[in-house]
């Protein structure tokens, strides 16, 4: 039985609230001290990391030429590293969901194991494509960039949700939708950066990946809504018209 709310024990909760004001009143001193301590740490902290220098002469020349032209290749490499880390995590998320669905999946939603394996394959293919893109710019795909570090921390909660044996398929899909929303936004940024650097081949490949991620998002949203029994009046979710997606930069 869920006993987390104070209404489960009205006598004890009343006693907890009937305390002398002086006991709870700190005049903001504790909060100010904590804020001052945090401010000191913030002021003296190092950055989250740095974009690694190219490990090859060719890579160094490529980056140097790009910087002389006024470009910012380090930003592009940082964001490529971010997507690389996120696609690796995405592959693992779908691995975990497939394992869970092999045990728990029933016939009440349209999602199938084959659907999940296809999306998982897309995520793994995106990972390899990003590794090739980093190498083509003279970077090292095994290096961790600041943004890769950031999304690694951000994704920890999603990984925990999918690997928790207590979470249902609906709860797992909620985490997957969260990941797909972030993934879509990340690819949109990457397409824009590649376009800014006049990397037409990357723009084409990244746009294709973006369109695939949009499909993943639409599918997982539908499956999640089916899993929680969501309908719109008398209309089922999969009967609703699909809104057109905004087009990526030319």
Structure report:
By secondary structure, this protein is mainly α. Helices cover 68% and strands 2% of the residues. The chain has ten helices and two strands, in the order ααααααααααββ. It has helices at 10-17, 21-24, 29-44, 57-68, 73-104, 113-136, 146-154, 156-163, 169-196, 200-227; strands at 231-232, 235-236. A two-stranded antiparallel ribbon has the order 1-2. A hairpin with a 2-residue loop joins β1 (231-232) and β2. The longest helix has 32 residues, at 73-104. It is flat and about 70 Å long. The termini are far apart. This is Ferritin-like domain-containing protein. It comes from Massilia antarctica. InterPro entries: Ferritin-like (IPR012347), Ferritin-like_SF (IPR009078).
Entry summary:
It comes from Massilia antarctica. This protein is an all-alpha fold and 250 residues long. It has helices spanning 10-17, 21-24, 29-44, 57-68, 73-104, 113-136, 146-154, 156-163, 169-196, 200-227, and strands spanning 231-232, 235-236.
SSE blueprint and pairings:
Elements: H1 10-17, H2 21-24, H3 29-44, H4 57-68, H5 73-104, H6 113-136, H7 146-154, H8 156-163, H9 169-196, H10 200-227, E1 231-232, E2 235-236
Antiparallel strand pairs: 1-2
Helix pairs in contact: 5-6, 5-7, 5-8, 5-9, 6-10, 9-10
InterPro entries: Ferritin-like, Ferritin-like_SF
Protein name: Ferritin-like domain-containing protein
